[in-house]
Design a protein that fits this description.
The longest helix has about 35 residues. Strands 9, 10, 11, 12, 13, 14 and 15 form a seven-stranded mixed β-sheet that branches. Strands 4-3-7-8 form a four-stranded parallel β-sheet. Strands 1-2 form a two-stranded antiparallel sheet. The protein is about 40% helix and about 15% strand. With about 375 residues, it is of the alpha/beta class. It has 14 helices and 15 strands.
Length: about 375
């Protein structure tokens, strides 16, 4: 008996086809909506993070407008490809026209610790990035900013023990996680190299190091006791002779104390914007070097001076995202044989090329980062 296609069967078939079509169309529309939402940041929010001051912050929408109150945070934001989000900066950044040729033109909101809150409010930022250290919520008028719906995010980017985590957190906040991972890959490559090589050096073969922050405020020389620079000295395979003297980051010590300790290596960290990217002139660094080697009795009784192991390093080569470069300089000075194959200057250039987009700078011929220059370098 032949199958007869009745009118009822045709209607059912048509209905099934329509239902399948509607289902497929609906799925396609949902997929398109989901994709559009992901591209616009929906699905990431609300985003809850904990900053370096231990604050729990809930971000409910993409961060598109940023005020930045220190150069280190601005470096990190630029490195992650989010410079276009910056709408205001601290006054100190306005002066840093070499390092931040375009960003230094952004509106100033005043000093990093005494900014003008009305100026910030007028810029309508989604977030203000401030120090986790060195500043209190009261000093930054945090309650007033938060009352205006502005997120106050506290990060440092100057401590070796937290910088890695802060970069990853910044990537999460700014939806730049791939870019953050790229920096971490570069960072880990060189920091792990230093750690692995230093781990094989016996304690007795690690040089005694005096780290100087500059002339003493009241007498002698200002010794680095703890903090970031102490961490760099230790990481690079040195023994900081001033560590543990006091419960402070730096302290004045008599030159006689340095003589008695007889350090193998003498490191001065130069700061204050007198070197680095801002100038090609090493005159200030050379003057500091000569002041140290000519301290009374040092030439006769301090091994670091006798063996020409006095080194000046500028902040720009050992702070913020560049700190692995500074650690490599220290490691090469402390253990020249172990790190004979390492070129800190070339690695510095690599960092700029990778993470400072639009910054045209040749480390081999520009800037004043270390003194005396490394053997074989162009400067």
């Amino acid at each position: 008996m032949r199958n007869v296609i009745t009118k009822e069967k045709i209607n059912v078939l048509v209905l099934v086809v329509l239902l399948v079509f509607m289902l497929l169309t609906g799925c396609a529309e949902q997929a398109a909506e989901k994709k559009a939402a992901e591209e616009n940041g929906a699905g990431r929010y609300p985003l809850t993070i904990t900053d370096s001051a231990g604050q729990t912050i809930t971000i409910v929408k993409p961060i598109e407008r940023i005020v930045v109150l220190s150069g280190g945070k601005l470096e990190a934001i630029r490195a992650l490809g989010a410079a276009e989000k910056v709408v205001g900066i601290a006054e100190s950044i306005k002066k840093d026209t070499v390092k931040f040729p375009e960003l230094s033109k952004k509106p100033s909101v005043g000093k990093w610790k005494a900014y003008d809150i009305e100026t910030i409010l007028a810029l309508k930022p989604d977030a203000v990035f401030v120090w986790a250290s060195y500043i209190t919520p009261e000093e930054i008028k945090q309650n007033e900013l938060e009352a205006a719906g502005i997120k106050v995010i506290r990060l440092d980017f100057h401590k070796p023990e937290t910088l890695r985590e802060e970069i990853l957190l910044l990537g999460k906040i700014l939806d730049k996680e791939e870019e953050a991972e790229a920096y971490i890959e570069w960072h880990d490559k060189y920091i792990n190299l230093v750690k692995e090589r230093v781990a094989a050096i016996p304690e007795e073969d690690r040089p005694k190091v005096f780290g100087e922050w500059g002339p003493g405020k009241k007498f002698g020389r200002r010794a680095i006791v703890s903090g970031g620079m102490h961490g760099f000295i230790t990481m690079a395979g040195g023994v900081n002779i001033a560590h543990g003297l006091v419960d402070k980051t730096v302290v004045d010590v008599e030159t006689e104390w340095i003589l008695a300790q007889n350090p193998d290596v003498y490191i001065k960290r130069q700061h204050g914007g007198v070197g680095g990217y801002a100038t090609n002139d090493v005159t200030r660094m050379k003057k500091s070097y000569e002041e140290i080697i000519n301290l009374p009795g040092f030439a006769e009784h301090v091994s670091a001076i006798r063996n020409k192991r006095v080194h000046i390093i500028d902040d720009d080569a050992i702070s913020g995202l560049a700190y692995p470069v500074g650690v490599l300089y220290l490691a090469k000075w402390f253990h020249p044989d172990v790190f004979a194959d390492i070129d800190p200057q070339g690695i510095h250039q690599e960092m700029l090329d990778k993470f400072w987009p639009g910054f045209e700078f040749d480390v081999a011929t520009q800037g004043a980062f270390v003194y005396p220059p490394l053997a074989g370098s162009a400067k």
